[in-house]
Predict the 3D structure of the following.
Amino acid sequence: MATEPASPRTATTIALPDTLDAESRRWLDALAGTGHAHDEAVLRLHELLLRAARFEISRRRLTVAHLRGGDHDDLAQQSADDALVAILAKLATFRGDSRFTTWVYKFALYEASVKLRRRAWQDRELPLTPESWPSIASQALSPQDHATENELLGALRDAINNALSTHQREVLVAITLNGVPIDVLAERLNTTRGALYKTLHDARRKLRARLAADGHDPSTDPGRQAS
């Protein structure tokens, strides 16, 4: 973790629940305070986050088999750094529903998993058009059910091609058909996860409306149907 000249800071006000365990209370008191106790707690927290990030990256290492050992450690350091920044910014949101160390651990796991997904897609072109359309292959379906399902899929393909905007179609296809992680897509399109979730929601709403207008049952989530 890179060190920078210390700058003055003010204590963070946190409302701690009466039922909070003693260890979590000590963590929060130190991190929300100032001076040497705060700085020491930040260093200890970063060490904890680094261990968590290394564990997650080791657990998922087969998903990015081309990475070398040094790359693993670099990703772990980045994950711990970013998790630390996020935690310090969100200290006041901690409500004591779990132990503090459990709460912060999740930040490190999230950052590590995001960075691994992004690294796995690095230098890969994002597939924004269908690589293949889903087909019904279940032997449990009767010939009539096969025909019904294939008709619905045909209507769904038509709706995706004609009822959605170009952006909605690319986002829906990339995520639901081609398996692009949403954080990877957000980074490539220079947008946010929230904006992409909104795009998906609007696209699915349009698809349901189009299917209903064409006489199909829109009760099945089109996003799931297309995945």
Summary: Confidence is low (pLDDT under 50) at residues 2-7, 135-139. The chain has two domains: 22-120, 143-225. The domain at 143-225 is CATH 1.10.10.10 (Arc Repressor Mutant, subunit A). The CA atoms of residues 186 and 194 lie 9 Å apart.
